[in-house]
Each structure stands twice: as structure tokens, then as C-alpha cells.
Sequence to fold (230 residues):
Amino acid sequence: MAASSAIATAAGAAPVIAIDGPAASGKGTVAARVADALGFHLLDSGALYRLVALKALGAGVPFDDASRLGELATALDVSFGPTGVTLEGNDVTQAIRGEAVAEGASRVAVHPAVRRALLDRQRAFRAPPGLVADGRDMGTVVFPEAGTKIFITATPEARAERRRLQYAERGVVADVAALLAEIRARDARDSARAVAPLVPARDAAILDTTDLKVDAAVDFVLQRYAQRAA
Ligand code: DC
Fold:
């Protein structure tokens, strides 16, 4: 077998844990902790949609211009490092976390051209010893063959309160009613879109974290992975 195909086979065989769910469900925290525990790579796919939105805002591209957004997503010059995310060499780790960019991400994500453009970039994260992939369509579209699929959810009220606490940690006072309205709007848009909507994969385990601590959620995912890997 040629060396290049051996590498391709090894990468293709790397296990994937797909963690999907709505905004502020805690999936990002759980995914990072699981990746850390297993020594796996981590894909924060939402960051890619946020980067497209940030780039579009800077370039003056409207969120409904599907073809220009698709081009922009194809050409996106990004890198993910241990200290954060850069866009065209600039550190945008904080800039992509704002609510305006989050809303923009949800808007650009409805366009098939954007989703297509990001597909290979996401799949390229799959490498030995394994990948934890966090998003909306990891288990349904990007890695449908993933051996472990989890759909993490929580009530909109619990998620709005978590978002409020995250802001409070950064010294920002946020109105929980406004956060709740944003979360509901984002849920509606992410779930209703025609392409790769936010739905659990048929073979996903549903994990409701409304009354669950992060440690318990991490343990659930690790146990599920261990069962599948056994
Ligand atoms: O996970 P997040 O909040 O960073 O995601 C921001 C937006 O990006 C989300 O509202 C919808 C979109 N998204 C998506 O459509 N598909 C993904 N796999 C991840 C995010």
C-alpha cells in the first residue's frame, strides 16, 4: 500500500465523538473536557461559522448574499492554535464570541454554499488518536459514521442563565430576558433551516443537562464512548 493511502486509512479510522446541540447547551465545555480526557483533537465547528460571519461583517458582505459568503468561506484564512483562533493572522479569539457574531453565524449557516465550503475543513480535523467534534450537524452530516453521537440539550431558560453567568465572569452584566429571546431566535433558525438543521441523529444519545453538572455530562460521554469502543 502506498504511504499516502496508509495515512488516509489511518486518519479515516480515527474514532469520532460527535456532540451536537443548541446554543449554550454546554456542549462546547463538555466537548473540550472529553477531548482533554482522551487526548483527542477538538473541532469547534461553530467557530468556523462565526469566523465567516466576522469576515463578512468586516468585508461588508450581507448575510443574505449566499454566493459571496460561499466564496468567503472557501477562502477563509484561519488557524486554530493552543492559545486561540486567528483570522488572516489576527487573534480573533474574543471577537468571535460576541452575540452579534453569534447571530451572524446562525444567519450565514443557512446557506448551502457556506456549509459546503466548510465541509472538508471540518473533516480534516479527523486524525489519530481521535476527534471530538462539537456543533449542530456533526452526527448527521459531517461525520454520519461517528461511532459515538451525543445530542446535548437543556431548557432555553437554563441556557440563557448559563450565558448570563458566562458574561458575568467576564464582568459584563447581561439581561437574561434578552439572552433568552436571542437563544429562542437562534434555536428557531438553526432548527428550521432546510440544509443540515439542528436535529439529533437517529442513533444519538440525548443528554438533557438542565439539572446536570458538567462533570456528570462529561462522564456520560466518556462512558458512552467506552461502551462503543469496547
Ligand atoms: O456553536 P456556536 O454557538 O458557536 O454556533 C454558532 C452558529 O453557527 C449556530 O447558531 C449555527 C451555526 N452552526 C451550524 O450551523 N453548524 C454547526 N455545526 C455549528 C454551528
Notes: Strands lie at 16-20, 41-44, 78-81, 84-87, 90-91, 131-135, 148-153, 205-208. The chain has two domains: 1-40+129-230, 44-128. The first strand starts at residue 16 and ends at 20.
